[in-house]
Amino acid sequence: MTASTAPAVPFASPASRDGAPFAREAQRYDALLLAGFGGPEGQDDVIPFLRNVTRGRGIPDERLEEVAHHYRHFGGVSPINAQNRALKAALEAEIARRGIDLPVYWGNRNWAPYLSDAVTDAARNGHARLLAFATSAYSSFSSCRQYREDFARVLDETALGDVVTIDKIRQFFDHPGFVDAFVDGVVQALRGFFDEGTSVEGIRVLFTTHSIPTEDARRSGPRDVDFGDEGAYGAQHRAVASAVMDRVRADEPRAAEVAWELVFQSRSGPASQPWLEPDICDRIAELPAEGVRAVAIVPVGFVSDHMEVMWDLDNEALEAASEAGLSAVRTPTPGIDPAFVSGIVDLVEERMAATPPEERASAVGLGPWYDVCRPGCCENVRAGFKPAAAGLAP
């Protein structure tokens, strides 16, 4: 294949290979590929799993063991694989309920079942045209582009690149099924605070997400759009938090004047490297001086209760709140909430039908996001651009 005949989007289906931001022709898919992060399922898995996560960085096992204690606290088992099994089953049930002929394959980036196994199994079963759903709602290197690089790497390593195509469902931060899945938990938390006699001024809603290096944040999203210092990553989270609060206030009028803010967690880089701030625990410690007496902690950056929710929030953040003398509630993640599961299948049908962007469901002003990632989306500052599926080069 010459450069002049090569598709603008490598490894793409016929309807998406020309590089248009939104699919313009209806497209048949053979299967849905559920792409996850992966996690250990026993004590012996912990260090090998962390080696996979940090591959190429030369981090010795002694340093990995400092992180391993989070997993060892839970018997070496991350909940993320069980959650993806549950999500896979829920998706299969909803797909079947709608009468769609679309099997679901599940593969992970960092632990079994691996993406390479899932793609190989799909191809062996004659399912060569795959639509991928990655369990990350927002734009950044680790939450979008790295999955796209994984797809390209797997197709190259398995020598299936001339047989299998992989498209990726658009980033779904803005979809009502994702946004609405957070609302009831926030409403219930605020009602509990009101019932305890806490004033509106004494309540704060902290929407929390994974911190990333500020340089990565600036490069998140397409490079020809200025989203500010936090890039598309920060802008998308703030838009979702605002939309959640709009729905909360509609359901609970007493919440009309409750203040909210976006905070960050789970920083893992060197102290010399700037990351998005404020850290959730640092912010919690400051709140009593501002008259705050109760906090609702909303894990808006996460689709399920994996390790960085269970440890960093349910242990560290709630402990910080207790030390600050604050009442605190951590609200649920979407998990397999029916609205979330239904929303994913809505996105599948949207892509298959090539629904025009103006007709797509979006709960925030930044959506709907692109079907095909734009050039330069979500650059990895440290490693640069690697080949990636489901987007234009680089």
Automatic annotation (TrEMBL):
- Residues noted as binding Fe-coproporphyrin III in the record, renumbered to the chain: S78, Y147
UniProt KW keywords: Cytoplasm, Heme biosynthesis, Iron, Lyase, Metal-binding, Porphyrin biosynthesis
GO BP terms: namely: heme biosynthetic process
Q: Where does Fe(2+) bind?
A: H210, E308
| Chain coiled-coil ranges | none
- EC number(s) for this protein? 4.99.1.9
What is the top-level taxon of the source organism?
Bacteria
So, what pathway does this thing act in? Porphyrin-containing compound metabolism; protoheme biosynthesis
One GO CC term on file = cytoplasm
Molecular function as annotated in GO: ferrochelatase activity; metal ion binding
Q: Name one Pfam family in it.
A: Ferrochelatase
Keyword Cell wall biogenesis/degradation part of the UniProt annotation? no
Q: Which reaction(s) does the protein catalyse, per the Swiss-Prot or TrEMBL entry? A: Fe-coproporphyrin III + 2 H(+) = coproporphyrin III + Fe(2+)
Main location (coarse class): cytoplasm
Q: Which residues form the signal peptide?
A: none
The UniProt entry's sequence similarity note says: Belongs to the ferrochelatase family.
Q: Which NCBIfam families match?
A: hemH, PRK00035.2-1
> What protein am I looking at?
Coproporphyrin III ferrochelatase
